[in-house]
Specification:
Layout: E1 12-17, E2 28-33, E3 41-51, H1 53-60, E4 76-83, E5 95-98, E6 112-116, E7 120-122, H2 129-149, E8 157-160, H3 166-178, E9 181-185, H4 191-197, E10 201-203, H5 210-215, E11 220-225, H6 228-238, E12 239-247, H7 260-265, E13 269-272, H8 281-294, E14 301-306, H9 310-316, E15 325-329
Parallel strand pairs: 8-9, 8-11, 9-10, 11-12, 12-13, 14-15
Antiparallel strand pairs: 1-2, 3-4, 3-6, 3-15, 4-5, 5-7
Length: 330
């Protein structure tokens, strides 16, 4: 494994902060002094930062942060520049990537970040920093949903809503690697690419008879849903008996189960999950990087922004003109 000479940010660094909840206009660039490491912490010089919808939820106040000002961002990739523990398996100069910051720990929109060991893993040399930052959160989310919660197995029929999104295009590849038959939804311009990634059936989510089209491809054993408030009724309709439905997101806070008698008669298992509850993120990241080295998993990077354009980056994650992830290069 290659180690890299450090361009130290110990002392002064730039980061994005917000002092109050609101729109993208509350984001601002600041220069601050780095703090001393506490027990078990690792300081990383960031080379790339992933941008995710959850970053905006914290900024808007939908999810509360521990204190203000706060720095958003969960994903990062970079180079270890300082380690608190002398017994660490890492060393200064190691390439790493990780996720799970920005909720209880200050986020990653910064030239330098501090992370616990369990939130990061070694980033193998052939994988670019921007790929590591782009895949961390969405990769862990897809893994937890399909492997840990749904226990998906080869031969099962799987529906993945929003296949062109960050989690969606990774979930399609993961389910394909496991040997499931995949149906997914996306805008028409992404259908060819999603079939290349492993989807067998791809439908435009604006189709009036979407549920019927999906049902015609067979009832689904596993369903991954990023908009539970919108698609739960459809999920119940197209699910097989004993199907597992994993919800990873919603637009509105209230989510109902339409056609409840049908859901009950099918004895459906419905899981709600958050990536931030993952017991040991580093273990899943190790699995993800192995798949990337095998070329059975590839993250698509749609656009790149400098740190001072974080406002534009957050606006872009809601654009339907992208397939894949947005990254910040500090």
């Amino acid at each position: 494994m290659t180690t890299y000479p450090l361009r130290s940010t110990i002392g002064i660094m730039r980061k994005i902060c917000f002092y109050g909840y609101g729109g993208v206009e509350v984001l601002q660039v600041e220069e601050i002094k780095t703090r001393k490491l506490e027990r078990g912490e690792i300081r990383i010089k960031t080379e790339a930062i992933g941008v995710n919808p959850v970053d905006t939820y914290f900024r808007e106040g939908m999810y509360k942060v521990p204190r203000l000002p706060w720095t958003p961002g969960s994903d990062f990739a970079g180079v270890v520049e300082e380690i608190e523990s002398k017994k660490s398996d890492l060393k200064e100069g190691d390439r790493v990537y990780g996720t799970g910051l920005g909720k209880d720990i200050d986020g990653t929109y910064s030239e330098s970040i501090i992370s616990p060991r369990d939130n990061l893993a070694i980033l193998p040399d052939p994988i670019e920093f921007e790929e590591g930052a782009a895949i961390a959160l969405v990769g862990v989310t897809a893994w937890r949903a399909l492997v840990d919660h749904a226990n998906i197995i080869a031969g099962e029929k799987c529906l993945i809503h929003g296949g062109s999104g960050g989690v969606g295009h990774i979930a399609v590849q993961l389910a394909n690697k496991i040997g499931a038959e995949i149906t997914t939804t996306a805008r028409s311009e992404y259908h060819t690419k999603l079939k290349q990634l492993g989807a067998k059936h791809v439908f435009d989510y604006n189709e009036n008879n979407l549920a019927e089209l999906i049902e015609n491809t067979g009832q689904k054993n596993v369903i991954l849903d990023h908009r539970c408030d919108e698609y739960m009724g459809l999920n119940v309709q197209v699910a097989s008996k004993n199907a597992r439905i994993v919800g990873i997101g919603q637009e509105e806070d209230q989510v109902a189960i339409p056609k409840f008698s049908i859901a009950r008669s099918k004895e459906l298992e419905i899981y709600m999950m958050s990536m931030f509850n993952t017991p040991k993120i580093s273990s899943i990241l190790d699995q993800i990087s192995r798949m990337m080295l095998e070329e059975s998993l590839k993250v698509l990077v749609a656009k790149r922004y400098p740190l001072e354009k974080a406002e534009e980056a957050q606006k872009m994650i809601y654009s339907q003109s992208n397939m894949g992830k947005i990254v910040i290069i500090p």
